[in-house]
TrEMBL record:
Cofactor entry: Mg(2+)
A Pfam family recorded for this sequence: MMR_HSR1
Annotated SUPFAM superfamilies: P-loop containing nucleoside triphosphate hydrolases (SSF52540)
Keywords: Cell cycle, Cell division, GTP-binding, Magnesium, Metal-binding, Nucleotide-binding, Septation
Gene: engB
Name the UniProt record assigns to this protein: Probable GTP-binding protein EngB
GO terms under biological process: division septum assembly
One cellular-component annotation, GO: cytosol
Family listed: Belongs to the TRAFAC class TrmE-Era-EngA-EngB-Septin-like GTPase superfamily. EngB GTPase family.
The protein's role, per its UniProt record: Necessary for normal cell division and for the maintenance of normal septation.
Species, as recorded: Nitrosomonas marina
Length: 196
């Protein structure tokens, strides 16, 4: 599948240090503790590629993983962790918005949300920032194992209905890193971005 040969490439914490390359990047973003590292580890089948931590807000850098010669997976810093001091949060939020809006090699954004807390204010902020670029977005509602099958599917429908008005082209899916659910659906959605 798409992400299987991933290996660590570089970590950066300043905009001017972003690697220059001629390939494509797929970025992963989400609130701290949403389950982003676990999604990346599940998609790449690497247990510890992205660091899974019980301490939210630990991933304070942009981590690049090389998928193959011309394709990179970009793990963006988790946002929305209240205990991060304002100055640091401000630094990361400007870095995120600048990255999302100006990175030419970025082909699409994957937004990770805990299915129990979808579409929070900062998630909507990310949608707004990135939609300006006209590039595709895919939402992964993870930890779906935390809800019953019915509740998970009704949440999926609610999220789709809410996006319909302003972001009709954004795709949404259920995922569970714990139960390994939704991997092929995610692969399919993201594969389309690099095929074109
Ligand atoms: P990140 O901060 O967004 O990278 O989130 P992590 O991947 O570190 O996950 C945060 C917490 O949620 C950890 O305690 C994980 O074990 C847990 N978690 C992540 N994904 C799942 C999932 O699919 N199901 C369940 N039940 N727990 C999960």
């Amino acid at each position: 599948s798409l992400f299987h040969d991933a290996s660590f490439y570089v970590s950066v914490n300043q905009f001017q240090d972003l690697p220059v390359h001629s390939g494509a990047e797929i970025a992963f973003a989400g609130r701290s503790n949403a389950g982003k590292s676990s999604v990346i580890n599940t998609l790449t089948r690497r247990k510890k590629l992205a660091f899974v931590s019980k301490l939210p807000g630990r991933t304070q850098q942009i981590n690049y993983f090389r998928i193959r010669d011309n394709l990179f997976l970009v793990d963006l810093p988790g946002y929305g962790f209240a205990k991060v001091p304002f100055e640091i949060r401000h630094h990361w939020e400007s870095l995120l918005s600048e990255y999302l809006q100006t990175q030419k090699t970025l082909v699409g954004l994957v937004l990770i949300m805990d299915i129990r807390h979808p579409l929070k204010e900062l998630d909507l902020q990310m949608l707004e920032w990135f939609s300006i670029t006209g590039k595709p977005m895919h939402i992964i509602l993870t930890k779906s194992d935390k809800l019953s099958r019915n509740r998970a599917h009704s949440t999926l429908k609610q999220v789709k209905d809410r996006l319909m008005l302003h972001y009709p082209s954004v795709s949404v899916q259920l995922f569970s890193s714990l139960k390994v659910v939704g991997v092929s659906e995610a692969n399919e959605a993201l594969y389309n971005w690099i095929e074109n």
